Amino acid sequence: MGRLKSTWLREIFITVVSCIVVFAGLWAYDTWASYRQAHVPVVPPKPVAQAGSHMAVEGVDFSRSPLTLLLISSPTCQYCLASEHFHTKLFDLGRTEHVPIYVAVPSREKARQYLGLLGVDDVAVKEYAQMNLSASGTPTILAINNRGEIKEVWSGLANPADELNIANLVQSKKFSSGALPTGISAPNFSQSDLQKERLSNHLELLNVAERGISGSEQGEQNIPLQELPLRLSYEVDKEQLHVVDCTNIAWRVCESAVTLLNKSHVRTATLGAGSLHLRCKVTPVGS
Hints:
The chain is of the alpha/beta class and 287 residues long. The protein contains eight helices and twelve strands. It has two domains: 62-177 and 279-285, 3-Layer(aba) Sandwich (Glutaredoxin), CATH 3.40.30.10; 188-271, Rhodanese-like domain (Oxidized Rhodanese, domain 1, 3-Layer(aba) Sandwich). The chain has a five-stranded mixed beta sheet with strand order 3-2-1-5-6, with helices on one face. Strands 7-11-10-8-9 form a five-stranded parallel beta sheet. Helix 3 runs parallel beside helix 5 (160-172).
């Protein structure tokens, strides 16, 4: 009986010690993990590239050409793969017109097969980590001047009109100015056009997206499209130019807002109408 009791006590003792060791180990690991997490440097996300932003890419000297194109792409994005034929033609056109064109991918090594399909020279390949800015999605094409300033942005699966505009830009080496055609009955501005317009006119930037969806510009007035018919009579000053921010909304929403404003005899223009295309959303690319 005494031997049985001794064995029983020994097993209890071993069990208790084992539990203490396990809990001590878990506590030590949790303490170490918390310390490590607290001391890991937080890298802030890179700003999203837009017209007017200054672009910098390691190994690229934008001052050597009046026009440089940068394609931000990904070998795993279906819209990038669907644009392969256009992008290949674009690189060929760039060589013919002596316009530098670079492509940025997440990893040069992982994108090797995709880059081979594009026929891109190795020196024209960059990685997201080498850029000072990110993009809201892929594919994105940036047109950059000799001061490193982004003048034009095409984001998403390019339509035939976009492809023609990009090709014309490469051939003419002249950036667009003034209104861009969209099929909406109002002048359409790029970001650079908007900055020029602000210098000469007092305007109001109008965001017609639903509440909670942040606009692309600070200081814009948010009146959701469904509320616009009621609120425009007492919140919209007809003496001002109202620019509807269409950079992050569907074309039909942009058109509906412009139609309502026009019927109320409000001077209206759009910003980036038709710029929302099919794209692979990455938040954010390059961070």
